[in-house]
Amino acid sequence: MSHPTHEPAGPPGLDRGAIEALAEARHGDPFAVLGPGPSLEPGRRRLVVIRPDADEVGAVAQQDGRPLGVLARVHPAGIFAGTIEDAPYRLVVTTGQGTETVEDPYRFGPILTDEDLRLIRAGHHPDLPGVLGARVTEVDGVTGTVFAVWAPNADRVSVTGDFNGWDGRRHPMRLRHAAGVWELFLPGIGPGRAYRYEIRTRGGTVLHKADPMAQATEMPPGTASIVPDPTPFPWTDGSWMARRATTDLLKMPVSVYEVHAASWFRDAAHPQLDWDGLADRLIPYVRALGFTHVELLPVMEHPFGGSWGYQPLGLFAPSARFGRPRGFARFVDRCHAAGIGVILDWVPAHFPMDPHGLFRFDGTALYEHEDPREGIHRDWNTAIYNHGRDEVTGFLIASALYWLEHYHVDALRVDAVASMLYRDYSREPGDWVPNIHGGRENLETVAFLRRMNQVIEARVPGAMTIAEESTAWPGVTAPVAAGGSETALGFTLKWNMGWMHDSLKYMGEDPINRRWHHGTMTFSLVYAWSERYVLPLSHDEVVHGKGSLLGRMPGDDWQKRANLRAYLAFMWGHPGRKLIFAGGELGNPREWDHDGSTPWELLDDPGHQGIQALVADLNRLYAREPALHTRDDDPGGFQWVVGDDAANSVFAWIRRTGEEAIDPATPSSGMLVVANLTPVPREAYRIGVPAPGIWHEVLNTDATAYGGSGLGNGGRALAVETPAHGRPASLTLTLPPLATLMLRQGR
């Protein structure tokens, strides 16, 4: 159909400049022009519609479909205007594909309430995903999707998608000035539709952005957001969630298997598992090895797989690499059914600067700092969140709550906390901005983390937050309470990076030299109760040229495996929760490759089978024996027996449940841990104990079942009333080479 060169001017009162602005997608207040306008004569109303794909546009009555009027094309870009009978209406649109009757998005009033806007601006909205992003809902009896996005400095924002040809002219949004939020209800748009926001900046640049609040995304490298399915997930973990809310997790065993979901298992038939495939394989494996939790490297949507998820842009969307969001919910539900908790790595420190993401979202530094000395991370070339802006901290806290509440996740491990706490982190003099007191502490981040942990504690009882924090910041796990320290952050647990660095350094020494580094292994007990700790042997320790855990151990193949077995048992006997990255339990001799797979073929070798069997037995012993976990944060739960035998590289200590003396009638009341970290067997080594009697050797890393030589104490030893190490009784033990023993007193 040909269009006239000169279009009609349209009904009286229609501003030609406004029509041109709409046609050029630069009008900042589309509701002032589009949709039903003022009454121009009794019983009739102006109507303006933009449909670039249309040949004809008219209106019919909602109730009975009778014609109300036909609109004239008033601009070649597809703007139609005219007067219609003043009655509830629907549009009749004829295109080259036929004629359809549709709702007019511009006949609907504002969606967000004034209270919503106030809370968004204050950063305190209790349900941010319920008001921002894309929500399938019903408005005035019409089903569709409400889109809402924070972009206070934009000149114009439109919703584009597979439903409007990605044309920014079609659906410009209404600006709610009180919060800088743009909103639009699109009737007839349902779950699964792809969309973006087209943003015109004040400088006239047009940006195409994914939704920061998207709950689903298309598969990378695609960048569109997806309208989420609003159907509630049929959770079956009610008993798990009820127990979680009332359990004292600080008294429970926490043994974590850390996993990069994309590379945990791959073969020719499975280049990458989806959530259901991962559940089928990972959950039984984690349960068989006795881990209490599985921790996933970030699964929030991220553009670059090589970042392992640590540069996310979709803080509310499970990555489409593994399927749809409901698949992730099924994974969590199945973990809980198997008695396994789920921890997610979460990144509120920084984000990548991909053009479709958060960086200069509306043409200004919205989520990040404007000053590159505050807003750009030099190490990772990423943008740093502005934790001093209420809307940003509200966005981040909403993300944390979303994973814990919507997906029933049990804990968030917060990445790179040290980089957030210090303004001069990894910066040269002159390349950072001091705080208001002239110091290096990031006071805005401290306030954000304190509030985040307070909100989570109040809203999600039993959920944990775990800080990856590598400095001596005081009070990372101290409670945030009235009258408490201003540095207290309120995390549940903190990674003990000092223990990890020191112990790996010691284990990397040739045993003949370990006597000179003895204090490196004991130093962690000086500060072991200053925070509530996790002992991490994470993915970071097996990449970037560091070598694998097994590869760091000195000696020939047998000695490497013996060293690793002794080290793992040392770790499981040491105060603090346990974490090991996938492959460590196999004695992987190679560094982790995120494009590869865990080397399952190692299990064809009995030596590697033995390491795996040891980890399983350590987990079972750790969970079964209260002495190994109930007083992790209490110095009264630990007593050195031998901490100064540097010449022989022997360490011995007792883990206690709380009794003043180990009770022979209570076998689980205490555990003696002895490590000989040289390849020399120690015969008749005397160790002081609290009372005489039989001691059962419940674990020996030199056992043949683990690939060891089989040297030990025949499963038991007798303590006699011969004082040693300041105790009234003592054991005479055979200490196998490069081995750790655990002994429990009993009848």
UniProtKB/TrEMBL annotation:
One of its GO terms (cellular component) is cytosol. Residues 258-624 form the Glycosyl hydrolase family 13 catalytic domain. GO terms for molecular function: 1,4-alpha-glucan branching enzyme activity; cation binding; hydrolase activity, hydrolyzing O-glycosyl compounds. CDD domains: AmyAc_Glg_BE (cd11322), E_set_GBE_prok_N (cd02855). The keyword Transferase applies. InterPro entries: A-amylase/branching_C (IPR006048), Branching_enzy (IPR037439), GH (IPR017853), GH13_cat_dom (IPR006047), GlgB (IPR006407), GlgB_N (IPR054169), GlgB_N_E_set_prok (IPR044143), Glyco_hydro_13_N (IPR004193). PANTHER family: 1,4-ALPHA-GLUCAN-BRANCHING ENZYME. Belongs to the glycosyl hydrolase 13 family. GlgB subfamily. Monomer. This is 1,4-alpha-glucan branching enzyme GlgB. It comes from Tistrella mobilis. The gene is glgB.
